[in-house]
């Protein structure tokens, strides 16, 4: 038996949730593009839940906001009074995100709980329930299957919706949070939903990692450097990019220390106060982005820092993005890497 | 046209007239973006179709691309206007670049929709270029007068915005700009944002906060629009790149419309023209200058 809920009931659920919490869901803007946005109770009719749309942005903004106050300071005579920003304690529902979005959350967890427990990320994560929707369409920018995902990847989700014909959804409850959210809202049915077929996997990520570890000064990086204008739009729509900058704002007397998104594709990202820049050109910045995702992060945290969502490629004016870059690396790696002979062969050769 | 373009590129490289042809190529995922042909053998990868939306002129001032040497660049009529502005502002020696102008019937955005800018385009046959590919007579000339362009029902979004009462328009921009993430993609893709150090990047002292707050978002976007006033050629690169889906073209085109209707200045159409915001005329109607 499956659990089924109607679209009208989902909208009602979202409207109820929005009364005392935050609902984030795909919502069209005036220009017709769809973004994960905060939805007010009266806007729930406009939420797009078809499993085929491609939101331009990522859900990460609701767990790792682009701008967040850490604490405020106030100078009083010779003393400085510091006030911590309040802990996030509002229930939050992310509704109708793609599985490649929810999958980014378990990947990001360790980086915010590694040498320091980032209460800003962690409190949001604890207060958030994620309901994804199984993809009904994949496009040529999708490559979730290359990085271990699928159109119905449940990683990071508390429940997943499968569109059925008519305005109904099958709900698969995955965690306690998901069960609580949908308790008493679903009916039993024999209808079972399906996801679309995933994009055909063509990349060998282990081979790509090996290539990255041995090609720091490859000409490919300057090839990418010519094409990339360093706009960094790819990083802001990426569900796994998580770099930030900490700055003080306000005056000498009164102000705040804030955390803002930062962009590795910008020259300013690594510019030292001395004027020296260890990543002096766009090639070095492209290399950093790809190496971070496919070599550094996997080595440190055991997961590829990419869910194959394709947001970067869909937005890139220069037709770059992670997938086209990986394809270039793959073709280089195929020509370049001689297969390493098994150990016993090498031992024999040595003798 | 694509074959003609490839032949020309091959010839320019073979005759050593240029070191690189900056054109469009096909990416692995089927999208069209910048392609740098540095030898004759690569010229068959140059493409020309309605997906050639990117304005390639931005590459001419990129240090990484300058290192490639003398360049020929593929431009549409709108992009060619940016080239004129760069030369007028002393950012490049026009004779050192070979501009290959493509006769253009209009391009599409990433969603496959015809770009709004193409509806009001008057430069479908590129001007001020060194080579023209395609038959200029094959494309309609486009709306001739500013009235027809800006008030003829062609750029609906712009007209709708301008018709709003001031308070409503302010509220609309407030909502749109609230999505800005302060990534500066708009600046990076703009061929006319060439400052080596942008005012937004200055931090000793900070001129514009880097936070994506309503006040800083307004400060950044309005400042950028002012810096482009009378200069923006309406290529739409900023709108296409914006990860927040903000129609930045509306901000810049509003100023372009004012520049045209009030001063008769259409950016990038007159080689050698003085910048509108950097010059005055004794015929100006305001008397404070006289």
Annotation keywords:
heterodimer, A: 351 residues, alpha+beta, eight-stranded mixed beta sheet, four-stranded antiparallel beta sheet, 12 helices, 21% strand, B: 290 residues, alpha/beta, 2 domains, 11 helices, 34% helix, globular
Compose a concise summary of this entry.
The complex is a heterodimer of chains A (351) and B (290). Chain A is an alpha+beta fold. Helix content of chain A is 32%, strand content 21%.
| Largest sheet data of chain A | 8 strands, mixed
Q: How many domains in all of chain B?
A: 2
Radius of gyration of CA atoms of chain B, rounded to a whole number: 19 Å
* Helix-strand makeup class of chain B: alpha/beta
What does this structure look like?
The complex is a heterodimer of chains A (351) and B (290). By secondary structure, chain A is an alpha+beta fold. Chain A has two domains: 2-189, no CATH class; 205-336, no CATH class. Chain A is 32% helix and 21% strand. Chain A has twelve helices and twelve strands. Chain A has an eight-stranded mixed beta sheet with strand order 3-2-6-7-8-9-1-10. In chain A, strands 5-4-12-11 form a four-stranded antiparallel beta sheet, with no helix packed on it. In chain A, strand 8 and strand 9 form a beta hairpin. Chain A starts with a strand and ends with a helix. Chain B is of the alpha/beta class and 290 residues long. Chain B has two domains: 2-138, no CATH class; 146-278, no CATH class. Chain B has helices spanning 2-14, 63-66, 77-88, 116-119, 146-151, 156-163, 166-177, 185-189, 214-227, 237-241, 248-263; strands at residues 20-26, 32-37, 71-75, 98-102, 131-133. A five-stranded mixed beta sheet of chain B has the order 2-1-3-4-5. In chain B, strand 1 (20-26) and strand 2 (32-37) form a beta hairpin. Chain B is globular. The termini of chain B are far apart. Chains A and B meet through helix 7, helix 8, strand 11, strand 12 and helix 10 of A and strand 2, helix 2, helix 7, helix 8 and helix 10 of B.
